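#struct-help
A.M.: can someone run this one for me? Single chain, 166 residues.
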Amino acid sequence: MVTAMAGFLMLAALVAWLAFVVCVLRALRLFAGWMPAAATVWRSDYTENQQSDDFWSMGMTLFTLRGWNWRDGDDTRYIEDEIRFHDQNGVERRTIVHRWVHRGWQPSGVYTVWYDAADPEKATVLGPFTWALWAALSLVLACVALHALAGMGGMAAVMALFSSPS
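D.P.: on it. Structure tokens below:
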């Protein structure tokens, strides 16, 4: 039983470490070549009727106007906004971004997006600080898994997992 738990903890630490690396790389990429801009929502697929219906549905998703979507979370909706923003040269740009909003609440009409300076049509609402926060969380999870593994006997438990019974 200890060897199975050691294997699980080793796998959890590896997955958390890989998530940490991906998040750090994404944050560094955004810091390196992307710029922040204030975006104004031009059009959204989350209508006022859907917002009102979500508000009065008491948390149920199944029979709402918008229905169930696998990308929606608990009390959130995954929506698509067509936005306008000005790039660093002052040129107005339009693009489509996706974001999560609270169900039944009026989404903000102005928010910060990060756009690629080389291709301003590429924009995201998840900036480098969001990715850095996810990286920190992933690193904490990796450390917790490794600490639990060390409490079980460390590498001896992992080696017992891979050794063949005699």
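A.M.: thanks! Helices lie at 2-33, 48-56, 128-151, 155-162.
D.P.: also worth noting: The radius of gyration is 22 Å.
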